[in-house]
Structures are given as C-alpha cells and as structure tokens.
Amino acid sequence: MAIHKSTPTSGSIGDADLVSLSYVSELIHPLETLELMQLVDLAIARNASLNITGVLSCESNRFSQIIEGPAGAIELLWNSIKKDERHCNIFSLGLKKIKQRSFANWSMRLIDGKQIAAFDPKLKGPIAK
C-alpha cells in the first residue's frame, strides 16, 4: 500500500509536507526485551537521519506505531516497514497532513498501548483481517 499523494480530507500532499502515519501489525514471533530495545535503537538512528519522529508500542504480538515527518521520508520508511519480515498483517490507519509534530523530541520512543491509543484511538482496536 503506497502513500497516496492526495486524499479527499487533507488535500494534495507533496514530498516536503509534514505528515503523520499510524499503523498496526502482528509480530511473527514475540520479541525478547533485548531485541525490542535493539529495534528501537536502530529506529532512533534511522529516523533521525530521515527527519522522522514517532512512537512505537509493542504488546503481546502487536506493533502499533505513529511516525511523522516529511511525506517523502515517511513514504520511504513506510515502504521499508512493509517489507520487514518480523511482522505481518500490516495495516495503515491513515496518513494526514499535520501542522506540527506531536513527538518532536523523539526520533522514536517506546510507549505502552494506552499511551499510544491516546494519540490515535484507532490504534486501540484489533487488527482487521
């Protein structure tokens, strides 16, 4: 699923526009604490290089994530996320233009499910099949 450069609700989105993307997915195998911390460390470095910020929740067998940044960089990261073999049933819950970042101080931060659902309530429900 590619990021569409225009949507009825947000108007035209260009590569430099600031956007937010939320998604959920299912883990193929549960991650050990060390594996999860290594994943977050890699995400921090990669996101910083792409000018992307965001939050990640990993509970049970589910990832929930919100990423924000320039649309072109988000599209690049989204394409990589969809190819990551650690998870499946990857569903975008929406792309929207934003005026400012919610997570400006975090290239990536691990938070719990209740906290991430406060930012986007759609991240709370079950993954659609």
Beta strand count: 7
Discrete helix count:
3
| Strand adjacency order, main sheet | 6-3-5-4-7
Mean residue pLDDT? 88
Rg, alpha carbons: 14 Å
What is the name of the CATH architecture?
Answer: 2-Layer Sandwich
CATH topology: Alpha-Beta Plaits
Our measurement of the CA-to-CA distance between the termini, rounded to an integer number of angstroms, reads 15 Å
Beta content comes to 25-35%
Query: Which sequence of SSEs, written as H and E, runs from N to C?
Result: EEEHEEHEEH
The largest sheet is: 5 strands, mixed
Q: Label the overall shape.
A: globular
User: What's the CATH C level?
Assistant: Alpha Beta
Q: Could you list the spans in which at least 5 consecutive residues all have pLDDT below 50?
A: 1-10
Query: Helix/strand/pairing class, anyone?
Result: alpha+beta
What level of helicity do the residues show? Answer: 25-40%
The figure for the number of domains is 1
Explain this structure to me?
There is one protein chain. Strand 4 and strand 5 form a beta hairpin. The chain has a single domain, classed as Alpha-Beta Plaits (2-Layer Sandwich), CATH 3.30.70.100. The relative contact order is 0.27. It is built from three helices and seven strands, in the order E-E-E-H-E-E-H-E-E-H. It is α+β, with helices and mostly antiparallel strands and 129 residues long. 29% of the residues lie in helices and 33% in strands. The radius of gyration is 14 Å and the shape is globular. Residues 1-10 have low confidence and may be disordered. It has helices at 33-50, 71-83, 113-119, and strands at 6-7, 11-12, 18-27, 53-59, 62-70, 87-97, 109-110.
